[in-house]
Amino acid sequence: MVEAAVEVQGVVVKYGEVTAVDGVSLTVPRGSILALLGDNGAGKTSLLQVCEGFRGPDAGSVRILGLDPVADHDALMPRLGIMLQSGGVYPWATAGEILRLFASFAARPLDVDMLLDRLGLRKFAKTTFRRLSGGEQQRLSLAVALVGRPELVFLDEPTAGMDVGARQTTWKLVESLRADGVTVLLTTHLLDEAESLADHVVIMNDGVVAATGTPAELTAAAGIDLLQVRAEPGLTLAATLDVKVTEESPGEYAIAGALDTEAIAAVLGWFAAAGAQVTAVNTRRRTLEDVYLALTAGATR
Ligand SMILES: Nc1ncnc2c1ncn2[C@@H]1O[C@H](COP(=O)(O)OP(=O)(O)OP(=O)(O)O)[C@@H](O)[C@H]1O
Predict the structure, then answer these.
(1) Alpha carbon of 252 to those of 18, 71, 73, 241: distances in Å?
(2) What is the mean pLDDT of each run of 10 residues along the chain (301 residues)?
(3) CATH number of residue 131's parent domain
(4) CATH no. for residue 274?
(5) 211 occurs within a structural domain
(6) 8 A C-beta contact, residue 85 and residue 157
(7) Residue 20 alpha carbon to ligand 1 centre in Å
(8) 160 Cα–ligand 1 center, Å
(9) Based on the domain organization, do 74 and 181 belong to the same domain?
C-alpha cells in the first residue's frame, strides 16, 4: 500500500497550561486535498506547525512523506511547500525578488514569470512586499510555497483576505496541484472552500477532531435534510418524530431530522393541528456549514 503523505497519530500540542491539540489523528492520502476546519483557537495552526516540523508534538507521532518532520527536517523541507498565515517573507524585497530567491533554493523550480502570471502578480513584480495589499501578499505567499515544485503543500488559510476573483484563481491552482499528484493540507474558515476543494474534511473543535469525512459524507449522513416552515410565531408543536424543531426567528421554524415525504407530511400536520396558517415551506439539503455549526456550537470560547 502506498504510504499516506501525512500520518498524524494521537498528537498533543501544549503551550504551558493550554492544550491546543488534544490527541488528534488524521491521514492525508497522497495526491488528495484535506481541509482542516475549526473555530479560532481550535488548534489548526498548531497541528500544522507540528506537521511542518517547526515544533515536535508533546505526545503522539507524525510522519510526513514517510519521514519524521523534526528529525528529518533538512531532508523534508525541499519537498514541502509552506504558506504561512502571516506571509513570512521580507517586507523590503519586491515580489519578483522574493519569488526568485525562493526559486533559487529549489532543485527544479517552477518558472517564476509563469507563476506570477498564474496568480495575477506579474504587474506587481517590482512592488515591495510591504506595499502589496493583503490579498496580493497572500497570493505571493502562495507562490513562494509552490515555486519549489513541492510534493506536499501546507496552506494556512490560503484565501484569507483575497477578493472573489483571486480566491477562484487560487482554488483553480490548488485543484491543478492535485491533478499533478501534489498533496495539499489546508486550513480554512470558508466552508464553501472546503466543500468545493477538499477530498476530505476534518472539523476540529477545542483541540480534538469533532468530525471527519468527505464533504458528501458529512452532509449526507442520515437525517440531514432541513425543512423550513413559515407560520405565526410562538407555536407549540406536538412533535412526535425524532426531529429537532427550532424557531430560528419569530415565525420561521427549522425542522431538522430524517425527513422523508411522510415525515414532511407529518410535520405539516403538526402545524395544522396547532391551527396555524403556513405561509411558506422550503426544503433543503444540509450544507457543510450546517454540519459545522451543529458540531462547533457550544464550544467554550
Ligand atoms: N505560542 C503560543 N503560546 C501560547 N498559546 C498559544 C500559542 N499559539 C497558540 N496558542 C493557543 O493555542 C490554541 C490553539 O491555537 P491555534 O493557533 O492552533 O488555533 P487555530 O485553530 O489555528 O486558530 P485560528 O483559526 O484563529 O488561526 C489557542 O487557544 C491559542 O491561544
Answers:
(1) 40, 56, 55, 19
(2) 88 96 97 95 95 95 96 94 73 91 91 92 92 90 92 93 89 92 94 92 95 86 73 85 86 85 89 93 83 70 38
(3) 3.40.50.300
(4) 3.30.70
(5) yes
(6) yes
(7) 6
(8) 17
(9) yes
Range of the domain at 281: 225-285
- Element (DSSP H or E) covering residue 7: strand 6-15
| Within a domain: 200 | yes
Q: Which of 44, 159, 206, 208 should be mutated for ligand 1, with most atoms under 8 A from CB?
A: 44
Residue 231: what residue type? A
Residues 208 and 252 in one domain: no
**Cβ of 139 less than 6 Å from ligand 1:** no
Pocket flag, ligand 1, residue 12 (CB < 6 Å): no
For residues 53 and 40, is the Cβ–Cβ distance under 8 A?
A: no
Q: Is the dihedral of CA 111, 112, 118, 123 positive or negative?
A: negative
Q: What is the DSSP string of 197-258?
A: H-SEEEEEETTEEEEEE-HHHHHHSSS-EEEEEE--TT------SSEEEEEEETTEEEEEE-
**Grid cell 491539540 in the structure block, residue:** 21
Residue 244 grid coordinates: 429537532
Any atom of ligand 1 within 6 Å of the Cβ of 40: yes
ipTM higher than threshold 0.85: yes
Residue closest via CA to ligand 1's atom 16 equals: 43
C-alpha 185 to ligand 1 mean position (Å):
18
pTM: 0.82
User: Rounded to the nearest whole angstrom, what is the distance from the C-alpha of residue 124 to the centroid of ligand 1?
Assistant: 32
Contact 67, 76 (CB under 8 A): yes
Closest-lying ligand 1 atom to the alpha carbon of residue 46: 18
